[in-house]
């Protein structure tokens, strides 16, 4: 019975490895068809066969009859490999995107459920076919180095295309057998970078698994908290705030394109977004050309200009610039850093970024810091102020506040990177503290009255008949009193 005609479904090819232990492989193949109503038939791990999911939305033929048919044809199969043409739905294929089919799947997906069911040996043979073209090998660079943001209608997402032989770019069988690679690079490019990883299973097949081994999350889904938070690169979760995850699946029997299903927590499908094949795959020749162009890009001048950022920001030209000029320079620098980190940046983009930084730096309008007035406020003016009664007779807290303002001003003077704003603020602080001094002029009336008695005292017998030492002491005291009386800023204590 023709299984393909009965199911009227697209047909995918898979292979089952046969090991030399008699009729075991034939039994495995027969069991795969005899399992009525089974959506997944899996060989025992000791047989090393890959998992195949059998589904059909239409009535199936009699499983027993088909099993008998398969068994009768067993003798016609080669001694080294058994192959069947059956309908298959892999993890990450179009029908597997259904929310109901993803529940309860292991995060690792086991070694038999995360990608194509084509065995390692079959893939090797297939990859070396077609005019002798071999499977492409990426350069020794980190995953995601090719990523770039793509706009697809209203949706934006990162792309990290997988290189394939030019002759295979429209070969669905080949792309399907490498779907683990295409799916991994899309998911990884749009995650926060530490969610998924590729590994090789016991059958020497590449598979995808989550690094956290969370068995409650499927490997073909990108969950909201796993996704990049940069909405300029991935905006789907912003457009659908209620979405819990997106699920990527290859379109059966297509040209390598995929569908991205947006699903909310309850399993309701909110949208299905077509992902063009060009966002997943790239011809090896185009990839090599892009690599050559990337390697020829000279970013040294841009890197050198970015290296001047810290020095520029310490200059008065930047420090004293107006806010809009400083912001323009800051933006040019940040844009330049993005270009420097962009593996797909063109030489023109690199040159333009460097020029933008230079132009913004040239527009900085800050003048050299003028510290002359602050210098006066902390030196000669401070000395004079401290000799006035206003300072001398001020309360302790007012004097302390003035002293601190002067000391702080001196520190600003000593700072080679002090801005004009900082200098002006320090000068104003000194002036404000000076204005708060609450000392009043000293009362010298009693002192002046005592000084007025000098002539009478010196003509008296008491002065005339005193011994010389006492007259000298009186004369010295009189001299000091006259100095205090003449002193403009003499404190009340001195008087």
Automatic annotation (TrEMBL):
List the SUPFAM superfamilies hit by this protein, alphabetically: Bacterial immunoglobulin/albumin-binding domains (SSF46997)
Provide ranges: composition bias, Basic and acidic residues. Answer: 362-371, 451-468
Do you know which InterPro entries this protein is assigned to? Ig/albumin-bd_sf (IPR009063), YSIRK_signal_dom (IPR005877)
* Compositionally biased spans, kind Polar residues: 80-90, 118-133
Q: Which residues form the YSIRK Gram-positive signal peptide domain?
A: 13-34
Question: Which residue intervals make up region (Disordered)?
Answer: 51-157, 362-402, 436-468
Q: Where is the composition biased (Low complexity)?
A: 64-76, 98-117, 372-386
Q: Which UniProt keywords apply?
A: Signal
Q: Where is the signal peptide?
A: 1-38
Fetch the NCBIfam families from UniProt: YSIRK_signal (TIGR01168)
Tell me what this protein is called: YSIRK Gram-positive signal peptide domain-containing protein
Species for this entry: Streptococcus pseudopneumoniae
